[in-house]
Amino acid sequence: MEVLLNDFSPGLFVVQTILLLALIFLMVKFAWKPILNSLNEREAGIEEALAAADKARTDMQNLQADNEKMLQEARAEREGMLKEAREIKEKMISDSKEQAKLEGDKMLKQAQAAIESEKKAAVADIKSQVAELSVAIAEKVLKEDLSSNDKQLKLVDTMLSDIKLN
Amino acid sequence: MMQVSNTIKTLLQLLILCFSLQSFAISDTEPEGAVSGKEQVDAYILHHLKDSHDFHLFSYTSDSGERKHVGFPLPVILWSSNGLATFMSSEFHHDDNGQVVVEKNGSKFVKLHSKIYELDAGASSVNFDEEHHATNAHKVLDFSITKSVVGVLLVGLLMLLAFSSLAKQYGKKKIPTGFGRVLEPLVLYVRDEIARPNIGEKHYRKFTGYLLTVFFFIWVLNLLGLTPFGFNVTGQIAVTACLAIFTLIIYTVSGNKDYWMHILWMPGVPVFVKPILAIIELAGAFIIKPFSLLVRLFANISAGHIVVMSLIAIMFTLKESLGVAGATGLSLVLSFFITLIEVLVAFLQAYIFTALSALFIGMAVAEHDHDHEHDEAGHEVADTEDVRADFI
Amino acid sequence: MVTYNLIGAGLIVIGAGLGLGQIGGKAMEGIARQPEAAGKIQTAMIIVAALLEGLAFGALFLGK
């Protein structure tokens, strides 16, 4: 403590007080006030700019969301239209298939019926022709075979044996 | 920016001019010559730690064996028993032992261990008692432009130039250029890391100017103390006392009702404890806080100077045991690293002085909405609590 | 007389050293636990250490 008090110079203290007061006054007036004011101003400016940027970003986001929504809607609409078209196409194909099948069936039946009737007619024709032919053959055979008595008797015998057998 | 560098250049030229014009070489009666022994090193360090009345740069021994000092004298302004006396310090002829008597305005002055004494009426030379204290002389009020005052003026001028040029830069554009880019973050640092958190968002603006001034004042002076010019301004107890008393006045004047109530009539404690706490708090507010501020800065800077100079003195004191090269090398390495630490300490002490000033101001202007606990141990505990409350 | 002062100074230095050790150690622990709060812890640490240092210096000078 003694050393401290001995080293303490009141004159220097007074001079230092005056100088420090002057320095504080001058620094506040010429340096700190303008510096701090402009720093505050700048900070306020930065804050404002940041807020504006924020706002712009949210606006942008909203806009983007709107766009997205519209795009979504358009896409959904397109999808719906495509689906409808596909359905129509399928329906048309299946309809035409069915119709074609029906038509084919019908034609087939007609053809079958025609064939059947032709066949019947042909069979009937063949039958009549066979009958005619057999009659003619029989006539010729009979004319040939019954020209003598022996032969007539022989035939009658044959016939009679056949009948017996039956 | 060019402007500032030009001004600095001009200042330097002026300084050199001063050296060349006013450098004075005066023969010395001291028989010892250059500093070499242990006692002389101690004396030299102690002498350096004190303020001096001339700006001493270096000394050498001329060919004829005379001791020459190079530097320039500073004006001495004294308020003696016969009124104001002014003369140049060169009139003491580098005497520091009370041998040379200067007579001005009917008073006789001597310089003894960096202090100027006025001889009592009728005496013609100083008499000493066995402890080497003068018996027939008394101290005078010494308003001299000492080396410390030169340092303060220099730093004040530099600060004004640097920061007013920074302030001017803002007028033209929003972002500073050149050296201003270094200064601006420092200003922001003091404002945002020291003033704002310690004082609080509501009141910090009023005190930022003072804190900024004090921070840069102490920091630059601390750094100036590390230069070879040998300033030891922040190691002068008068300077740190002045700074501490400024802080004391500021927080005493701006203290609000809560602050005074907490000092004089602490709420939340039994009545019989209140007067005891009031005494402790009063001592804390008016003695302990400023005393710790002034002593911390003074002791740290003085200790730093002593350590650096002692390590430099290894060059002389260990010359015999280690050899010239060994002693010089050791001294250079050690003092280099300690100087690096001192650069850090220079900033740290400026920061601590400013931060504690801000903290004390903050405690004085804080609005206590919480009824926080007070320990009977007194203000130190309250301090740490408040520190924590502010940082958490 | 001088010896007593020196003993007192030694005691002060021991006490201050212990205190500073506590402050530093606890701050390190805190930083290790919460590295993101390192800056705040350091600031608080320096200020508390400075308060202690002021006390120690004051006592040293009063004793001297």
UniProtKB/TrEMBL annotation, chain A:
Residues 46-91 form a coiled coil. It is found in: Cell membrane; Endomembrane system. The chain crosses the membrane at residues 12-32. Keywords: ATP synthesis, Cell membrane, CF(0), Coiled coil, Hydrogen ion transport, Ion transport, Membrane, Transmembrane, Transmembrane helix, Transport. GO terms for cellular component: endomembrane system; plasma membrane; proton-transporting ATP synthase complex. The keyword Transmembrane helix applies. One of its GO terms (molecular function) is proton-transporting ATP synthase activity, rotational mechanism. Component of the F(0) channel, it forms part of the peripheral stalk, linking F(1) to F(0). The b'-subunit is a diverged and duplicated form of b found in plants and photosynthetic bacteria. F(1)F(0) ATP synthase produces ATP from ADP in the presence of a proton or sodium gradient. F-type ATPases consist of two structural domains, F(1) containing the extramembraneous catalytic core and F(0) containing the membrane proton channel, linked together by a central stalk and a peripheral stalk. During catalysis, ATP synthesis in the catalytic domain of F(1) is coupled via a rotary mechanism of the central stalk subunits to proton translocation. HAMAP family: ATP_synth_b_bprime. Belongs to the ATPase B chain family. F-type ATPases have 2 components, F(1) - the catalytic core - and F(0) - the membrane proton channel. F(1) has five subunits: alpha(3), beta(3), gamma(1), delta(1), epsilon(1). F(0) has three main subunits: a(1), b(2) and c(10-14). The alpha and beta chains form an alternating ring which encloses part of the gamma chain. F(1) is attached to F(0) by a central stalk formed by the gamma and epsilon chains, while a peripheral stalk is formed by the delta and b chains. NCBIfam families: ATP_synt_b, PRK14471.1. This is ATP synthase subunit b. It comes from Maribacter caenipelagi.
From TrEMBL, chain B:
Belongs to the ATPase A chain family. It is found in: Cell membrane; Membrane. The gene is atpB. This is ATP synthase subunit a. Keywords: ATP synthesis, Cell membrane, CF(0), Hydrogen ion transport, Ion transport, Membrane, Signal, Transmembrane, Transmembrane helix, Transport. Key component of the proton channel; it plays a direct role in the translocation of protons across the membrane. The lineage of its organism: Bacteria, Pseudomonadati, Bacteroidota, Flavobacteriia, Flavobacteriales. GO terms for molecular function: proton-transporting ATP synthase activity, rotational mechanism. GO terms for cellular component: plasma membrane; proton-transporting ATP synthase complex. Residues 1-25 form the signal peptide. It comes from Maribacter caenipelagi. The chain crosses the membrane at residues 149-167, 207-227, 233-251, 263-288, 294-315. It is a multi-pass membrane protein.
From TrEMBL, chain C:
GO terms for molecular function: lipid binding; proton-transporting ATP synthase activity, rotational mechanism. The keyword Ion transport applies. Keywords: ATP synthesis, Cell membrane, CF(0), Hydrogen ion transport, Ion transport, Lipid-binding, Membrane, Transmembrane, Transmembrane helix, Transport. The chain crosses the membrane at residues 6-23, 44-63. It is found in: Cell membrane. The record marks 53 as: Reversibly protonated during proton transport. It is a multi-pass membrane protein. Residues 7-59 form the V-ATPase proteolipid subunit C-like domain. GO terms for cellular component: plasma membrane; proton-transporting ATP synthase complex; proton-transporting two-sector ATPase complex, proton-transporting domain. Pfam families: ATP-synt_C (PF00137). InterPro entries: ATP_synth_csu_bac/chlpt (IPR005953), ATP_synth_F0_csu (IPR000454), ATP_synth_F0_csu_DDCD_BS (IPR020537), ATP_synth_F0_csu_sf (IPR038662), ATPase_proteolipid_c-like_dom (IPR002379), F/V-ATP_Csub_sf (IPR035921). It comes from the Bacteria. The keyword Cell membrane applies. Key component of the F(0) channel; it plays a direct role in translocation across the membrane. A homomeric c-ring of between 10-14 subunits forms the central stalk rotor element with the F(1) delta and epsilon subunits. F(1)F(0) ATP synthase produces ATP from ADP in the presence of a proton or sodium gradient. F-type ATPases consist of two structural domains, F(1) containing the extramembraneous catalytic core and F(0) containing the membrane proton channel, linked together by a central stalk and a peripheral stalk. During catalysis, ATP synthesis in the catalytic domain of F(1) is coupled via a rotary mechanism of the central stalk subunits to proton translocation. Belongs to the ATPase C chain family. This is ATP synthase subunit c. It comes from Maribacter caenipelagi. The gene is atpE.
